[in-house]
Amino acid sequence: MNNTHKCPNLEEFKEILHKHSLKATPQRLAVHEAMMSLGHACADMVTEAIKEKGHAKVTVASVYNILTHMAMLGVYHYRMSANNKMYFDVNTFKHIHFYDHENHTFRDVIDDELVRLIESHLSRKRVKGYKIEGFDIQLIGKPSRKKYLI
After folding, report:
1. Verdict on whether the full-model pTM lies above 0.85
2. pLDDT of residue 148
């Protein structure tokens, strides 16, 4: 994994907040710390992680609002799961997702070569009336009997 494959650390996150004239509140910092640890998470998961550490007092609603605000600023991306929950992704670099539709979990699939191939292919394609700005690939599966790591 190269250096472009990382989320903002806590100091970088504070700089992002400052750039957007936002305070580095204990709640915002706790949400980002939880997201750095979890990677992909819904507000319930982040809230639980924060409560386990005991760093800040938060509600699911406040965590959801922080996650949504950070996604609007581009700090996180978001994805809807098949069980209609919004999941946030701390990694905003170009990558592919694997969605486990039985456990409703996301994992990153880092394959720079495949991403470059798709970008190259799409650069030669036209969709009448539109400009292609990006792509979002999600592989969908369920656990097999054997535990394999991608």
Report:
1. no
2. 60
Tokens 């990677």 correspond to: 39
Per-residue b or e along 109-146, where b marks 16 or more CB atoms closer than 10 Å to that residue's CB: eeeeeebeeeeeeeeeeeeeeeeeeeeeeeeeeeeeee
CATH, domain 10-89, list 3.40.50.12780, 1.10.10.10, 3.40.50.1000, 1.10.3720.10: 1.10.10.10
Block means of pLDDT (10 residues each) for the chain, length 150 residues? 68 96 96 94 95 89 97 92 88 86 87 90 87 85 73
- Tell me the pLDDT tens digit for each residue of 102-133: 888 888 888 889 989 988 888 888 888 998 88
